[in-house]
Amino acid sequence: MSFELTILGSNSALPTSNRYPTAQVLEVPGLCFLIDCGEGTQIQIRRNKISFSKIRHIFISHLHGDHFYGLIGLISTMNLMGIKSDLHIYAPSEMKDLIQPQLNHIRGEMTVKPIFHPLNFKKPQRIFENKTIEVFSFPVKHSIPTSGFLFKEKPKPANIKKELIKAYNIPIAAIKDIKAGADFTTEDGQTILNEHLTTPLAKTKSYAFCTDTAFHPPISEFINGVDLLYHEATFLEKLKDLAEKTLHSTAKQAAEMARLANAKKLLIGHFSARFKNTDDFVAEAKEVFPETEAAVEGKTIKF
After folding, report:
1. CA nearest 10: which of 18, 21, 2, 1?
2. Same domain, 133 and 195
3. Which residue out of 66, 86, 177, 212 is catalytically annotated?
4. At what angle do helices 95-103 and 71-80 cross, to 10 degrees?
5. How far separated are the first and last CA of the chain, in Å rounded?
6. Which domain holds residue 189?
7. Is the dihedral of CA 166, 167, 173, 176 positive or negative?
8. Do 183 and 136 sit in the same domain of this protein?
9. How many structural domains compose the chain?
10. Predicted TM-score (pTM) of this structure
11. Tens of pLDDT along 35-86?
């Protein structure tokens, strides 16, 4: 399975002329996930030629405005377009109370049906799954209850070598167990190892989204081995004291998290508006974790 992540917004609370508040779209075969929905998200969706009708699941990390102020505008636009679908919104429990009064003032009949799913901020929780992927929320460390999200491809059953089914006279009833990892014992008592009977499975893909958060090492245990980690890097290390005060992270701390989590690649973002470019962020992070790049509006990462 291929994952495709598009950055819609990479900035923190204050947007700049070329950086928007946090929003991302993660596409996997058959699904399109919107992660956070800062102001201007629907404009960025259009600019990046993403289909509004494909968005059925929205994940809101927390209730600071730069992560959800674009939500009502997006829903209104989807409704004006006549999109008829359930829209699942995974967010803090207060989200429904905040947005329902605005939904009540949308003119005409609502064709889009928002369905709210409250997040758990005390422990990791699976919040979505189908046959191919599962999504987990997990607590991070911020000034208000905030959740990270982990998107994981489910392991596929192993492929059994067809020529060996006949060679070892493997009954149909045993094939399911072999695909699940079992060895096979022949009629004469010979044990055939699973690795001989099956072809190696393709490695599953995973993506972790961590913002807003202070440097919090326990996060690394839950996201260990992730293919791509997005971690906030609001400040440079020279403003570490401010990062600690506001419960945000520096670029160096984001890199340290990627190292602790054994991530394959690090994507940093949620940059403070006081910095005009992100070169220093990338340079600082690469000193700790070389496989680092900056989130940039319009950038798409395929993995």
Report:
1. 21
2. no
3. 66
4. 40
5. 9
6. 159-199
7. negative
8. no
9. 2
10. 0.90
11. 999 999 999 999 999 999 999 999 999 999 999 999 999 999 999 999 999 9
166-210 pLDDT tens trace: 888 899 888 888 888 899 898 888 999 898 888 877 789 999 999
| Residues 23 and 163 grouped into a single domain | no
Judge if 9 and 119 occupy the same domain. yes
Q: Give the CA distances from residue 102 to residues 36, 45, 124, in Å, rounded to whole numbers and listed in that order.
A: 18, 21, 31
**144 and 290 assigned to the same domain:** yes
* Cα–chain center distance at 47: 21
Amino acid symbol at 221? E
Do both 175 and 206 map to the same domain? Answer: no
How many C-beta atoms surround the C-beta of residue 119 within 10 A? 22
Asked about 66 being catalytic, the answer comes back as yes
Token code pair at residue 228: 């791509």
